[in-house]
Write a structure and sequence with these properties.
globular, 8 strands, single chain, eight-stranded antiparallel β-sheet, 274 residues
């Protein structure tokens, strides 16, 4: 039996994210990667995601450029080249069309506010997880958590949960709300195959081992944005490290079912290269 189309399109989205800086990324490669006919791939992808393949690639590259401007200190020209633009002028025009301001204005505006954060660099082991993708406002990702936890419960695996995590792909200050991507994840001691057989939308993923910049956040999940900004835009710059182009990891340290919102404890973790 062939895999569900939605699962194969998600494979394409993962491949695009992993190869976003690859100048050789082509739709034909992505069609082959997911096992779709090249003839029909574009229509299938647009119909299921609402965007063309290369339109999505261009949007994600521009949003990544905005993140590099917001949280980094690389010259605008370097950000332009890393985003696939051959000139500063072409990048500036495209950036202004997308965000309404020139790159330098955007950087000055976004780096103005300062928030205190207590952070550290610590290792994190490799963590296999099962995940369910949510696309849309982060305020509604509870729906994916409800679906994931219902599947875990129906499989009789609630007692096997060893941790709860979120994989956060996009910055809500940069990416339009309907395009935000988030994976609700749990690690299980046993029973992964049983769980996957019950819900084809649930996938296996791995949180990679490595050294992470980690900041603790106390309070409701919808108040994390200042902690993100403080960690990525204020604490990390100047420490001589580079970040992997991969999702931010949120580790949820207590249960929102029996914890008051103001007492929720989370960790925001970003993996560093050196």
């Amino acid at each position: 039996m062939s895999r569900p189309w939605a699962d194969r399109v998600l494979d394409v989205l993962d491949e695009i994210h992993a190869r976003l800086d690859d100048d050789t990324l082509e739709p034909a490669q992505l069609a082959d990667h997911a096992g779709f006919s090249r003839h029909h791939f574009h229509r299938v992808f647009r119909g299921m995601t609402g965007e063309s393949v290369m339109g999505l690639v261009r949007r994600l590259r521009m949003e990544r450029a905005a993140q590099r401007l917001r949280f980094g200190d690389a010259p605008v020209t370097d950000v332009a080249l890393a985003s696939g633009y051959g000139s500063h002028e072409a990048f500036t025009r495209a950036f202004r069309d997308r965000f309404g301001v020139a790159p330098r204005e955007f950087r000055a505006r976004e780096q103005g506010e300062r928030v205190e954060v207590k952070a550290r660099i610590e290792p994190l082991p490799e963590i296999p997880v099962v995940s369910l993708r949510h696309t849309g406002s982060y305020e509604t990702c509870a729906r994916s958590w409800d679906q994931l936890m219902a599947t875990v419960s129906e499989a009789g695996l609630t007692a096997e949960i060893r941790g709860s995590f979120g994989l956060v792909y996009d910055d809500p200050d940069i990416t339009e709300e309907e395009n935000l991507r988030y994976d609700a994840c749990v690690s299980l001691a046993t029973g992964v195959e049983t769980l996957l057989s019950r819900n084809p939308s649930v996938r296996e993923r791995t949180i990679p081992a490595g050294r992470y910049a980690r900041a603790t956040h106390l309070g409701p999940y919808d108040t994390m944005s200042p902690t993100y900004v403080a960690l990525l835009g204020q604490w990390l710059p100047g420490r001589g490290v580079e970040l992997y182009d991969e999702p931010v990891i949120e580790i949820y340290l207590n249960n929102p079912e029996d914890t008051a919102p103001q007492d929720l404890l989370s960790e925001i973790c970003v993996r560093i290269q050196n």
